[in-house]
Design a protein that fits this description.
single chain, mainly beta, Jelly Rolls, Immunoglobulin-like, seven-stranded antiparallel β-sheet, six-stranded antiparallel β-sheet, 23 strands, 0% helix
């Protein structure tokens, strides 16, 4: 198996627009408090990459990488690598969002599978935990460094949490790359919501009375915020949200399914 050749060194060390507040920011220039778990025991874990001046599929400078292919031996790997953040104390009010940049090192071998979890800091990670995001990258241009934004479940507001990035369920690709992990408080601008990579859609939009949710997954809960960031009362009925009592205007809705939590905007008129 031939991979695109590029040079990076593996090192075994480890005010936003629209009135957002940065609660946590990790650029992986000098990461502290992060922990690595080589769950599959193959000797490969997430590693810090430093000093990259020539872009690697959109990534430069310093970032994290997890291998699904052993360059030295030419062997396929089936990773199960877990990267955990330090404890992050979330504010009691939202909306809160997790943002990170993710992509594959080689666009021709890009089918890296990953999941992201946000759990109470005192809770030990288990593979049965529900991710806020799970996806498989696709070969080609879309595998390049991409900013992903997911809503943090409001059940975690006011708690100390850890964020987990898990690279698993893939074999013989190359590297999954990760950078710029942030926790943000405040309403997202329209261009900051990740519609391109969303697996959830809402309609009709604008709406006058009900907002329907189109997803293949089970909807567990919804949380609606006005543009000031204030949570407003709505009622979820199956995959439909009763918004008749809302005043006319723009709103953000965080939709939690059994697989992930995503945020989108809608208009009540």
């Amino acid at each position: 198996m031939k991979k695109i050749l590029f040079s990076f060194a593996l090192v075994t060390t480890m005010s936003v627009a629209n009135a957002q507040t940065v609660i946590f920011n990790e650029t992986f220039d000098n990461p502290t408090g992060w922990t690595n778990t080589d769950t599959d025991g193959d000797g490969f874990t997430w590693e810090q990459i430093t000093g990259i001046t020539q872009p690697v599929n959109g990534f430069t400078d310093n970032f994290m990488a997890s291998a699904s292919y052993d360059d030295n031996m030419g062997d396929d790997l089936t990773p199960n690598n877990l990267l955990a953040s330090p404890s992050i104390t979330l504010p009691a009010t939202g909306p809160l969002n997790l943002r990170f940049t993710i992509g594959a090192a080689d666009p021709q071998w890009a089918a890296e599978h990953y999941a992201v979890y946000i759990l109470p800091a005192a809770t030990a990670f288990t593979a049965s935990a529900t991710p806020v995001k799970e996806a498989t990258l696709v070969n080609g241009a879309t595998s390049a460094a991409t900013v992903q934004t997911v809503a943090i479940p409001n059940s975690l507001y006011g708690q100390a949490v850890k964020v987990y990035f898990r690279h698993f369920n893939c074999t013989g690709q190359y590297y999954l790359l990760l950078d710029d992990v942030k926790v943000l408080q405040g309403v997202l601008a329209t261009n900051e919501i990740d519609a391109k990579n969303s697996t959830i859609a809402v309609y009709p939009n604008p709406t006058t009375d009900r907002l329907n949710i189109n997803t293949k997954d089970r909807v567990k809960s919804v949380t609606v915020y006005d543009m000031s960031g204030r949570k407003v009362a709505t009622k979820l009925e199956g995959t439909s949200v009763d918004v008749r009592n809302l005043e006319n205007g723009a709103y953000t809705i965080a939709i939690e399914t059994n697989k992930e939590t995503q945020t989108t905007k809608f208009i009540k008129k």
